[in-house]
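Write out the 3D structure for:
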Amino acid sequence: MKSEKLKIKNEIWNIIYFDEISSTQKYLLNNLNKFNLPVCVWSEFQTDGIGSRGNKWLGERGNLFFSFAIKNNFDVPLQSFSIFFAYIMKKNLEKYNIKLLMKWPNDLYTKNLKKVCGVLTNLKKNVLVVGIGLNTKKSPLKNFDGLDLKIKNDKILKSFLENVYKYSWKDIIEEYKKEFDKTKSLFDIYGDLQNDGSLKIKNEKVYSKR
């Protein structure tokens, strides 16, 4: 385990790195009381990563896996934090000329419609714990993909953390709604994206699952 401090605006982030870990999300959830916030735990290899809806996140060694915990001082609807942070990761990767599509509510895909990134959020009292798996190198699964990036994982991670407080929910949802209308048919998603991040299908609202 290695640790360092990273100052972003007025916040001092505790950054903790493991060569290998079962799950950054599980580790952080189980050890929240040991760290000052904000804190980020990351690794380039997970043995028991968590995906959304109870699935596992499988990734090759060398990819980027991280979870961070911050106080919930955001104006984001509770059910839409995964949308918020997934889109921030998308915007962050665009700085490196990496163009991805976002599938509602929490996944990033290549133009070939293969998944490269997933976001999972938990709320414990007033603390947000956000987990992100990003296949910066390659994927072991056929329906997933890797970006084969030459950029170091720690650089991508730190640039993402620098963007965490940069955007408001209004910024993100207004931009994402435009993309959603253009891409929803690619993912067989029907309905209209609402300002709170839910989908309106006829008279029914569908919310994202954290």
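The helical segments are 24-30, 81-94, 153-163, 169-183.
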